[in-house]
Design goal:
Ferritin, 6 helices, globular, binds fe (ii) ion, mainly alpha, about 200 residues
């Protein structure tokens, strides 16, 4: 990672337009039009609040279908943690004067629908959904934590703490039989692709 100023960036190293495309000059995710570090922090907070909101809705969709048994208990526990994550990002949006994503109404419906649909396929499919989503969030948080410098140490620590919770959620999904879900590789790949698309969109809108 180099700390070269962007003005000296060679023309062929301009930021790419893909999700999380690294800015080769700074090593941080940068999108065309990100004017300054503050805009970058706003983007991080907006997508993270969106992600936690979506996670909350997924577990609410699952909890609406699965009401009893060990899987339902695990879902309630993970839901409670997502509420805490969401609450913290809600506070940070206010503190840093960042607007939430415009897509929140979409995540409200799509998150719940994904949770309910997978739960209707069975407990193991619900857990496969958890594994898929939490793996994507783990990668996403790991990338963000790497990008944040010491000037944003508290935010970096928050993200790192939440990432550990998300990894525990993934492990809970595996412990509750995610890998035995019908068509597990296909289901997991589809949900991961959808989660990455949701991140990509929430970073931009
Ligand atoms: Fe979370
Ligand atoms: Fe989670």
């Amino acid at each position: 990672m180099s700390d070269k100023p962007s003005a000296s960036r060679p023309p062929d190293s301009r930021p790419r337009t893909g999700a999380g495309a690294p800015d080769s000059a700074t090593g941080t995710a940068c999108l065309p039009g990100d004017p300054d570090p503050q805009a970058r922090i706003a983007r991080i907070l907006r997508v993270d609040q969106a992600g936690e909101y979506g996670a909350r809705r997924i577990y609410e969709g699952q909890a609406a279908v699965l009401r009893r048994g060990p899987a339902a208990r695990a879902i309630r526990h993970m839901h409670a943690q997502e509420l805490r994550h969401l609450e913290r990002f809600d506070e940070l949006l206010v503190e840093r004067r960042v607007r939430p994503t415009l897509l929140q109404p979409l995540w409200h419906v799509a998150g719940f629908a994904l949770g309910a649909a997978t739960a209707l396929m069975g407990e193991r499919a619900a857990m496969a959904c958890t594994v898929a989503v939490e793996e994507v969030i783990d990668e996403h948080y790991a990338r963000q934590a790497q990008q944040l410098g010491d000037d944003e140490a508290p935010l970096r620590e928050t993200i790192e703490t939440f990432r550990q919770d998300e990894l525990a959620h993934r492990d809970a999904g595996l412990a509750h039989g995610a890998e035995e879900a019908p068509a597990y590789p296909v289901l997991k790949a589809a949900i991961k692709a959808g989660s990455r698309l949701a991140i990509w969109l929430s970073e931009r809108l």
